[in-house]
Amino acid sequence: MKQIAGGVTAAKGYEAASTAAGIKYQNRTDMAMIYSQVPCVAAGTFTTNVVKAAPVKWDQQVVKSGAKVQAVIVNSGIANACTGSEGFGYCKDTADAAAAALGISAAGVLVGSTGVIGKQIPIEKLTAGVAELAKKKQATLESGQEAAKAIMTTDTKEKELAVEIEVAGKTVTIGGMAKGSGMIHPNMCTMLAFITTDAVISKETLQKALSEDVDDTYNMISVDGDTSTNDTVLLLANGMAENEEIIYGSEAYETFTEALHVINEYLAKKIAGDGEGATALFEVKAVGCESKEQAKILAKSIVCSNLTKTAIAGHDANWGRILCAMGYSGAQFDPEQVDLFFESAAGKIQIIENGTAVNYSEAEATKILSEPEVTAIADVKMGEETATAWGCDLTHGYIEINADYRS
Fold first, then answer.
1. Interior CA angle at 399 toward 397 and 402, to 5°?
2. Where is it predominantly found (predicted)?
3. Is 256 a residue whose pLDDT tops 70?
4. Which pLDDT value is given to residue 405?
5. At 271, which helix (H) or strand (E)?
């Protein structure tokens, strides 16, 4: 496996574009297109929130139908959530506009939206934007990067990655882009991720690969405990690498899923670290657990604790908050057996041993917790299973961003 430059246009046959449609934002791009030169099989995972945005419902329908997909249209600024039949109709209007502009079937157009909930999309601006995107689409790495920028809302930076693998002597590429900064919580978190590959793989196998990996990547991040109405991860495969078909359970499948995991974990961590107002990526490793489920519950509980997140913001080794979060998680463990460590680029320090504080240096702990990426390692000494969750610190900036988000 090799990391390469680019994102959604790194794989063969994919083009992208961005444009400023003026949907909410002024003087910046707010629409993006991903286009495949040939039809793709598609897989998707979506929010578990009962309140689902219109694009989520549309995409679920398209993915379930088995239709070959050739384009994805995404807008930022307005989420098209809680907009009723009118909002769902705008998804169809978007697909129809893309079909007309690109000469493809509307049944194979996926859509995505992110932004303010409850507002109707200005559909005339959206369809005009689709026509512009169709004219501007290119296969360059730069067009992929600009597409990643166009889907940002409160994000501070674009998020993209691409890797290459070998499958039976053929080079297969996987590339992705994502957005997400707030309303991020495990269970498909407002986050959107779009992944493209030129692999030859069936729709069923592609869906298994995505579904199996989401639990260990996007579902292990949290910024604020709010599960969005719009969470969507879409994975397209156009087969242009001309590799021998990747079969579920084969060695090639293992290679493919390892590469997919690299993409998903990278994007998930970038979302977590770019949380609204955040100054640090906060990683939590639960180790020495008796089951994977126990490890995930403990890691998630710590990373979601607002008191712990504010301690990280203050570079304060307030370990009692972590032990407390473990205690109310629902997982069973012996608190008098827990060891806790903090780690960053500045070093590693043990804070508690067997549930009580060791004689550590507060100054050294503060130095370690002052880095832009900080890890807490909780060892319950019950087994060999581990899990990792990602979040961020909680600062005044989060309140400032969200107090006036609609304006």
1. 105
2. cytoplasm
3. yes
4. 61
5. helix 251-273
**Known binder of ligand: residue 229?**
no
pLDDT digits (tens, 9 = 90+) for 49-72: 888 999 999 999 999 999 999 999
* CATH 3.40.50.300 corresponds to the domain 2-273: no
DSSP one-letter string for 55-103: HHHHHHHHHHHTPPEEEEEEEEEE---S-HHHHHHHHHHHHHHHHHHHT
Tens of pLDDT, residue by residue over 17-53, are: 999 999 998 889 999 999 999 999 999 999 888 889 9
> Would the annotation count 80 as a binding residue?
no
- Mean pLDDT estimate for the chain: 93
Beta bridge partner(s), residue 46: 232
Ordered by start, the domain boundaries in the chain are 2-273, 281-403
The full DSSP string for 3-64 is EES-STTSSTTEEEEEE---SS-SSS--EEEEEEEEEEEEEEEE---SS--HHHHHHHHHHH
- Does an H or E element contain 124, and which? helix 123-136
Residue 90's identity, in one-letter code, is Y
Q: Sign (positive/negative) of CA torsion 37, 41, 42, 43?
A: negative
Closest CA to 104 of 95, 113, 94: 95
> By CB neighbour count within 10 A (0-12 exposed, 13-18 middle, 19+ buried), where does 102 fall?
buried
Domain 281-403, what fold? Ubiquitin-like (UB roll) (3.10.20)
Average pLDDT over residues 323-347: 97
Helix, strand or coil, per DSSP, at residue 146? helix
**Dihedral, CA of residue 117, residue 50, residue 191 and residue 64, to nearest 10:** -120
Q: Is 190 a catalytic residue?
A: yes
Task: Please say if the pLDDT value at position 225 is more than 70.
Answer: no
Q: What is the pTM (predicted TM-score) of this model?
A: 0.89
Question: What is the model's pLDDT at position 245?
Answer: 98
- The answer to the question of whether 402 is labelled as a binding residue is yes
pLDDT tens for residues 179-202?
Answer: 986 655 555 445 899 999 999 999
**292 known ligand binder:** no
The answer on whether 75 is annotated among ligand-binding residues is no
Q: 94, 190, 196, 232: which is the annotated catalytic residue?
A: 190
